[in-house]
What we know:
By secondary structure, this protein is mainly alpha-helical. It has eight helices and two strands.
Amino acid sequence: MLNPNSVFRKTSVGVAELSARKMPLRAELRRLLILVDGRSSVAKLATFVRMPEIDALIYELQSMGLIDSADGTTASAPGAADSGPEPSREQFLAARSAAVRAINDILGPSAETLAVKLEKCENARDLREQVTAVRQSLVRMLGENTGNRFLEAVRSAVKMEA
Length: 162
């Protein structure tokens, strides 16, 4: 979770994007990019977007190179802070299978590329990275609820194996 007092600023890429509008940014990302000014804190910015999503939105803008921190803060991937202890091999396998099932259920035949990336994960760290990337893709394509549904399917599988 980001420090509410952290401050972010637009990068040169972010400034150029506001003029050129070349990236297919969702409305809430474009709104936040416009609001980031190098002076306003995360707490202030959060009043203009849905508060629970501010960390994920800042992470996404930062990972796209559109903003950076004025104070050295790096946003972390959604769910990264609560990854907890390393899962057992059984939990890892259950989570990987659940991730593949969930992406196939959500996207059907068009999920093949993402499913293969998930299946190639050999350890929990790689799987976490891929699950985060898939979730972000789902959020961009189909919205926050779909991304969260995918993430919950993976987390549920790990809990059942615990």
